[in-house]
Write a structure and sequence with these properties.
Helix content: 25-40%
CATH topology of the largest domain: GMP Synthetase, Chain A, domain 3
Pfam families: OsmC
Strand order of the largest sheet: 3-4-5
Largest sheet: 3 strands, mixed
Organism: Ligilactobacillus pobuzihii
Structural class: alpha+beta
Order of helices and strands: EEHEEHHE
Radius of gyration: 17 Å
Number of domains: 2
Family: Belongs to the OsmC/Ohr family.
CATH superfamily of the largest domain: K homology (KH) domain
Protein name: Organic hydroperoxide resistance protein
CATH architecture of the largest domain: 2-Layer Sandwich
InterPro entries: KH_dom-like_a/b, OHR, OsmC/Ohr_fam, OsmC/Ohrsf
Length: 143
């Protein structure tokens, strides 16, 4: 990984640490520090599912904003994600489903814009190719 020459041309890099495991803290040195916990108990803290969902929603929303601008549209897209933790001992998985609502256009146009954003979003690119990941354009949140 470190031998990959693209590291030398990175636009931004960060380091995140977790030295305690699921029931502990994840942190950026001299920056963000989050208490972490399992979603299967009532302990305070953020869990991996929430962090993944926030990362995906933030990246998709930013990418949608760029796509809307390129199509001379005001930014109105909204993104939400649902993450499920499934499996059994020694084989757990996440199911990840994102929905994007683009209220200022009809659904066929929204689907084209969402497809474009899905292919460009860095987090979506990491998840793409997995049978556990899906993205859809929706007319509203009730669907």
């Amino acid at each position: 990984m470190k031998n990959d020459p693209r590291w030398q041309k990175a636009l931004y890099t960060t380091e995140i640490y977790n030295e305690e495991g699921l029931e502990g803290h994840a942190y950026v040195p001299d920056g963000l520090n989050l208490k972490t916990s399992s979603p299967l108990n009532d302990h305070p803290g953020t869990n991996p599912e929430q962090l993944l969902g926030m990362s995906l929603c933030t990246c998709l929303a930013a990418t949608m904003q760029a796509v809307e601008k390129e199509h001379h549209l005001e930014h109105h897209a909204k993104v939400r994600a649902k993450i499920a933790y499934i499996g059994e001992k020694a084989h757990y998985e996440f199911l990840v489903h994102a929905q994007i609502c683009v209220p200022q256009v009809d659904l066929p146009t929204a689907k084209k814009l969402v497809s474009e954003a899905e292919k460009r979003c860095c987090v979506s690119q990491l998840l793409s190719g997995s049978d556990n990941y899906s993205v859809e354009a929706v007319e509203d949140w009730s669907k």
